[in-house]
Structure formats: structure tokens, C-alpha cells
Amino acid sequence: MKQIAPTASFASHLVQSLLSTLLQVINMNVCIIGGTLEALLLAIHYQKKGIVSIFEIDAELGLPIAHPGRVLDPTLLDEYLTQDQIEFLKLSPNPDGWGCRWEWVMKHMTTVAASMGVNIYPRTRVLSMRQHGETTRVLTTKNERHQPTEFDADLIISTRETSGKPGRLQHVVDESLVISFTNQEYVQWFGGTLLTLHHPFSSMPTPALTLSRSDGQTEVWWQGECPWTPPTGYLETCLGLLPFSVDALSFDAILHRVNDFVNSVDD
Predict the structure, then answer these.
(1) Strands 126-132 and 135-140: what pairing?
(2) Chain-centre distance of CA 55, in angstroms?
(3) What are the tens digits of pLDDT across the range 1-18?
(4) For the chain, is the Cβ count within 10 Å smaller at the N or the C terminus?
(5) How distant, in Å, are the alpha carbons of 68, 145, 247, 250 from that of 79?
(6) What DSSP letter does each residue of 177-239 carry, written as one string?
(7) How many CB atoms lie within 10 A of CB 7?
(8) Segments in the chain forming alpha helices (H)
(9) pTM attached to this predicted model
């Protein structure tokens, strides 16, 4: 199986110094923009230090799906999920890793974060942010939950949006007031799901990733636009922005990047 790609330094010395000071604050308020797996893992970490809120534009975290269902080392899931949750994923071994439905990874991780007290706000867009005394005030849209629309944050982390849909609404972020989780190169990826029964097709160009799942379906992934359509059609397709390196596309790689980020701050 392929190895996790090395990650770059996440924060400058100045930012590290600032965050190290912030992390000494008791009951610090942390706002995380974007409902990605990175956001959930960061929220689980920082929830131990205070109050964490995640803002996601879509109705559910992890939807629409725009990430391969891929795990390299299933034992890494033990720290976060119960055995029943892991069994529910029905991981299936492949040369490129263990295949699974990514939406269920996201659903289970969202449940874990929420059970720890993380505030999760779907259908919520950040409209603006400004310095407010010693904190940053974040203004958001309303939704049907009658939630607050103003949040005072000691720390704001922005995670990368994965959807590449044209005309998609975006959060309004002041880069001078947030810490960007990653500085990786992101490019467009196309993913298609077809019946394993119909795979492989002789006419199919070699995918960058092939992940057969135990539900009788197989994911195939290429960089760029869709290079090929099977005669039987795809069951599902997705197009999104993901890291350039295929080695960065797994649960393991995301966890590795989050741990690097956290360690760079805590050191």
C-alpha cells in the first residue's frame, strides 16, 4: 500500500508563538470554518481546551462527497470510533488501501465530535469577522435552528473547502485573522462509482486510485475532468478540490496532517 506523503510546516514562528500563548487560555473559544474531516479531528482535539464551533455551508458535514473512501491502517480508527462503528464501515482490502463509504466515516466522526460537546452548525456561512477587543467576532448567517449569529473567538482555523461546484457560496474569511490549516497544492479530482461486477473495463484508462468496497461498488479516481465514462454509466460521480498527491488522499494522511498541525502549535 502507498505511504503517507510528508507534510509541510503549517505555521510561521510568529503564528506558533501566538497560538502557544492562546492555548494557555482556559476555556478558549475556537471557531473552525469548513465541515471537513480535518475540521472534526481538530475540533475533537481543541474541545479538551474549551468551546469549539464548526461552521459548514452544506446541510451535513461531508456532503456532497468529494473524497475517496480510503483507509490505509484501520487500527487508527480505534482511537475515535467504537467497534460497532468500525464494523459498520465494512472496510474492504485493496492494493490502494481499505475501501469504504466516506460519508459514513464523516457521519460517525460527526457523531463522536458532537457527543464530546463540539458545536456543529450546518447550513451556516461566515459573513464577516473583525477584531473585537482581545478576541475576533465572527458573524454568520441564520438557519432554522435559531442559533447565535455572533461568536467571539480566541482562535479561528480555516480548513479547505473540497467542493468545486460553480457558483457555490463561500465563507467570507479575513486571512489576517485566521490560521489556515494547510498550505498544500489543491487540484481538481474526479471520482466515479460503478458496480464491482462491471469492473474492470478494458477501455478504462488506469485510475490514480481504485477502491473496491464491500457493498459491491468500486470507486475510481483521476485528476482533472472525467476522462472516461463506462458503457453501463456511473452510479455516482463527484468533482472536487483535493491535495495534488494521491498519497494525501486517505484517513491516515489527514490524521497525520492534523497531528503535525497540533504538534507545531503545542511545541
Answers:
(1) antiparallel
(2) 13
(3) 434 433 334 444 444 545
(4) C
(5) 21, 31, 22, 16
(6) TSEES----EEEEEEEEEEGGG---TTPPPPSEEEE-TTSEEEEEEESS-----TT--SEEEE
(7) 19
(8) 13-22, 37-46, 83-89, 102-115, 251-266
(9) 0.87
Burial code (b: 16+ CB inside 10 Å, e: under 16) for 190-224 equals bbbbbebeebeeeebeebbbbbbbeeebbbbbbee
Domains of the chain in start order, with CATH, are: 13-185+247-266 (3.50.50.60), 187-243 (no CATH)
Q: How far apart, in whole angstroms, are the C-alpha atoms of residue 125 and residue 146?
A: 14
Taking a C-beta distance cutoff of 8 angstroms, is the pair 151, 138 a contact? Answer: yes
Q: Is 142 left (phi over 0), alpha (psi -120 to 50) or beta?
A: beta
Residue with cell 468545486: 164
Contacts of 74 (CB under 8 A, 6+ apart): 86, 91, 98
Tally of helices (H runs) and strands (E runs) in the chain: 5, 15
- CA-closest candidate to residue 109, choices 267, 255, 263: 255
For 60, list phi and psi in degrees, rounded to 5: -140, 150
In this predicted model, what pLDDT tens digit does every residue of 77-104 receive, in sequence order?
A: 999 999 999 999 999 999 999 999 999 9
Q: Which of 131, 242, 246, 233 is nearest to 178 (CA)?
A: 131
CA 195, 60, 246, 70 torsion-angle sign: negative
C-alpha cell at 134: 482581545
C-alpha cell read off for 210: 481504485
Residues 6+ apart with CB under 8 A from 117: 47, 51, 52
Give the amino acid at 185.
Answer: E
